[in-house]
Design goal:
The structure is a single chain. With 170 residues, the protein is α/β, with parallel strands linked by helices. The strands form two sheets. Strands 6-5-7-8-9 form a five-stranded mixed beta sheet. α2 crosses α7. The chain has helices spanning 2-7, 68-77, 93-98, 101-104, 118-128, 147-152, 156-164; strands spanning 10-12, 15-21, 27-34, 39-43, 59-65, 83-85, 107-113, 136-138, 167-168. The radius of gyration is 15 Å and the shape is globular. It has seven helices and nine strands; from the N terminus they run αβββββαβααβαβααβ.
């Protein structure tokens, strides 16, 4: 509950609403997710990553996940650490991350923690290729598909371990 309040994620009947803000914290839209994983959007689409406005422009490590619930799940496992997600999923990862390179350059380490499936692995490789050399690590987590699955199984240790053990991208 505390993490959902932090990100302002809320349930609206059978849907989840994920608010999107500009980099200076102005609410401009919301992604809506149904139980059947149908996504719609209200308002204006932003170029920012989900949760980006909540964190500073500099720091030791930032984690980028594939989905909003994964970012919240990582934050649940490691409160206080910058956890953000792609606004448009794996298919647009490279493009969405390219738009945020100036913000990401303020971090010493950028951990890409995408889903443990073919699309997630490919998206992580594509996105890593456009980020500053020597700063990027890719996190993997087996047997879970993503951070949200691990948290739902009460396995926050798996999330922390995947982030700490992320392998440098070369």
């Amino acid at each position: 509950e505390k993490t959902c309040k932090f990100y302002r994620i809320y349930r609206d009947g059978e849907t989840l609403r994920f608010p999107y803000f500009t980099s200076d914290g102005v609410l401009v839209g919301a992604k809506i997710k149904t139980k059947k994983k149908v996504f719609t959007y209200e308002g204006v689409s932003t170029d920012t990553l989900f949760g980006q406005h909540l964190f500073p422009n500099t720091g030791k490590r930032v984690v980028i996940t594939e989905g909003e619930l994964d970012a919240a799940s990582c934050y649940e496992a490691m409160p206080g650490w910058p956890m953000v997600s792609l606004p448009h999923g794996a298919a647009s990862a490279k493009k969405d991350i390219q738009k945020q390179i100036p913000w990401l350059q303020g971090y010493d380490e950028i951990v890409l923690f995408f889903d443990h499936d073919e699309a997630g692995r490919k998206a992580a490789e594509d996105a890593a290729s456009v980020l500053p050399p020597g700063k990027v690590k890719i996190a993997r987590m087996v047997p879970y598909k993503d951070a949200s699955d691990a948290i739902q199984e009460n396995d926050s240790e798996a999330v922390r371990k995947a982030i700490w053990d992320a392998k440098p991208y070369r």
